[in-house]
Amino acid sequence: MAEETMPSPLRQKPVYRFAPSPNGLLHLGHALSAFLNNDMARENGGRFLLRIEDIDQTRCTPELEQAIYDDLGWLELDFEKPVRRQSEHFDEYRAALEKLIEAGLAYPAFLSRGETKAIVRTFEAEGGLWPRDPDGPPLYPDIDRQRPQAERAALLASGRQHAWRLDMDKAIRAVGAPLFWQESGDGETGQIEALPAFWGDVVLSRSDAPSSYHLSVVLDDALQGITHVVRGMDLFHATAIHRLLQQLLDLPQPAYHHHRLILGADGRKLSKSEGSTGLSALRAEGASPSDIRRLVGLV
Ligand code: GLU
């Protein structure tokens, strides 16, 4: 066999990606992620891709997407083109969702955010403690999961707005074995056991967006051949959901590196509305790309 065609995992180039959402301006936390992906790709002879995570068409705008290109260009981060934009791939996410529906692992979820909140509030007013996911929000009530098939079908036929949610218990049973991921980040490292049950019936598509972050991120990482996911520590626990979806959809698993977060003066995670740590604001104040590297603790 000619050397170029020899299938050897050793010959595979590592592939990294930076995957911001254009629903706000990039801040120092994004700069750290982007620099780390870029630098690791360089050091390991790998590729560096950019992915625009714009499934939420109500919050993402072309202006904010342009601001991402401007900020990354200014930081001299050289990603490959073309850039993958999630809004151009809704059909692929839909096809994966269909697979999960056909396997009986997803159900239509009709409760609005307000209805869910009211259920939780009533339960807690009566002294109960509603279970919450690792990020804090309450788990989705089991009303829709328990709904009889005929009622489900009637609601769907009536055109009632709905999301699709993963039946977490069934999904875990379908996989049947504990799942792990390889972690090399700034917290716990090594083989980490994925514990998706803590997230409850996660959303796979919304009534106003044809996919969810969790579903599209695992599909895109697979479709783009991502071998190393380098992102903020705030997504460490969500990796359990990603490992589960990879397993259910028969997708390869990348290695993960969750890096430290850049905190604001109040000790909290930076938010997109925080002007003073926004990259464009810092640039306007005269900061240079190497100042940004220093500000995120990379030099
Ligand atoms: N789009 C996500 C964000 O902006 C990042 C997703 C990821 O890196 O997996 O927070």
From TrEMBL:
Gene3D superfamilies: HUPs
Any matching Pfam family: tRNA-synt_1c
GO cellular component, one term: cytosol
Family of this protein: Belongs to the class-I aminoacyl-tRNA synthetase family.
EC number: 6.1.1.-
Protein's name in the database: tRNA glutamyl-Q(34) synthetase GluQRS
Matching PROSITE patterns: AA_TRNA_LIGASE_I
Transport as UniProt keyword: no
Annotated GO biological process: glutamyl-tRNA aminoacylation
Name of the top EC class for this enzyme: ligase
Keywords: Aminoacyl-tRNA synthetase, ATP-binding, Ligase, Metal-binding, Nucleotide-binding, Protein biosynthesis, Zinc
Source species: Rhizobium oryzihabitans
Taxonomic superkingdom: Bacteria
GO MF annotation list: ATP binding; glutamate-tRNA ligase activity
PANTHER family xref list: GLUTAMATE--TRNA LIGASE (PTHR43311), GLUTAMYL-Q TRNA(ASP) SYNTHETASE (PTHR43311:SF1)
Domain Glutamyl/glutaminyl-tRNA synthetase class Ib catalytic: 17-293
